[in-house]
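Exercise 7.
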Amino acid sequence: MVLMEKQLLFRLLLVWVVSFAVVGCAGDSEPSSKIQLNKGTETAIQQKMICLGDGITAGVGVAYEEGYTKVLAAKMKSEGFALQVVNAGIKGETASQANARIEWLLQQRFQVLLIAVGWDDYLAGIPFSETISAIEQMLQKVALASPDAQVIVVASPALGRENDEFALRELAVQYGALYCPSLVAGPGEAPAFWSTDGQYPNKAGQEEIADGLAEFLTQEL
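Solution. The predicted structure, written as tokens, is:
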């Protein structure tokens, strides 16, 4: 009887240890990058990164060369990376609208897809639940059409609540995407980075985004 009790206790202890290890690993794991940026030689194969976004990505209110995608491309080139940065931003586009056109983008060949939506949803008064639902649908489509591509989900400056940021981070991890926190503080926190009406980042704000994104790419890819 004592032996049976000891065996039962051992089995229960083993189950608890294994369960703890599995849960612990799953909770702490972050997806690693699927690609490595090419760097170092003039003959390095050029990689393509598509930036799917709204008015912030489109560069509303600044000159074409002052938008973060152009500034980022110049920064990456100056650091020796063979990276083509494609601006696929549209002013006023919501996450649902971006989801409706992503199939066309997925017909192209690319190595990195940046999903940076949510700000124009905020301006339009769209609930975050609808925004994150559209982002999930986009992640599902990318997983099917371009499973080898590296997706980066960038948080919107409107993402102020901690639980919303956690939900977006968890969604990115679920689909093997990298999560990047907002690269510029909102107009209420950092007015120097925004237009006078607080609608979109100004030149300084676009440079702030480009700097943060360049650092993120070089550290994570």
